[in-house]
Amino acid sequence: MAAKTIASAGVNELISQIPNYLDYTNNENDESDSTSFTFTLDGVPCAVSFRGIGAGEDRITVIYGSNDVNISSSINSCYMPNFSKGVKMVSNGKQVTSVKMNLERKRGKYIMDGSIEFTTNRNHTASINKLNISPNGYSLSGPFIF
């Protein structure tokens, strides 16, 4: 639940920063450089980075507990940071919570199943689980297309 909450917060922030973000056009540069924004979530600093990865998909990384866009951008640039192996993201000596995912925009508007990678600072879990964040114009689940 915490991963999808942070994922929703980050995608919602992209939608608020970029008018018509979810609207895919065939004229877009599908493989774009990373773009980042900072925001707060219930008073906690956050950052979101995204970049086009082709075929109408964007790779998005959201960090919770830091507004260091260098971290979110670095994670987003890695193909597989392998959070499952215990990789920890640290900012100013503190572990941050991070989620990385692929968002489909061409064939629908959804976060691709199986694309979410998540690592958390256990101190963040309770506060994240108290948040009530809903997707704004997209689904939290859809088929993984490869």
What does this entry look like structurally?
The chain has helices at 2-17, 69-77, 122-129, and strands at residues 35-41, 44-54, 57-64, 89-91, 94-104, 110-112, 117-119, 139-142. It has 146 residues and is an alpha+beta fold. The protein has one domain. Strands 1, 2, 3, 4, 5, 6, 7 and 8 form an 8-stranded mixed sheet that branches. A hairpin with a 2-residue loop joins strand 1 (35-41) and strand 2. The chain is globular.
List the helices and strands and how they pair.
Elements: H1 2-17, E1 35-41, E2 44-54, E3 57-64, H2 69-77, E4 89-91, E5 94-104, E6 110-112, E7 117-119, H3 122-129, E8 139-142
Parallel strand pairs: 6-8
Antiparallel strand pairs: 1-2, 2-3, 3-5, 4-5, 5-6, 5-7
Distance between the termini: 25 Å
What percent strand? 25-35%
Low-pLDDT regions: none
How would you state the average pLDDT, rounded? 84
SS class: alpha+beta
Give the key terms.
146 residues; globular; alpha+beta
Summarize the structure.
This protein has 146 residues and is an alpha+beta fold.
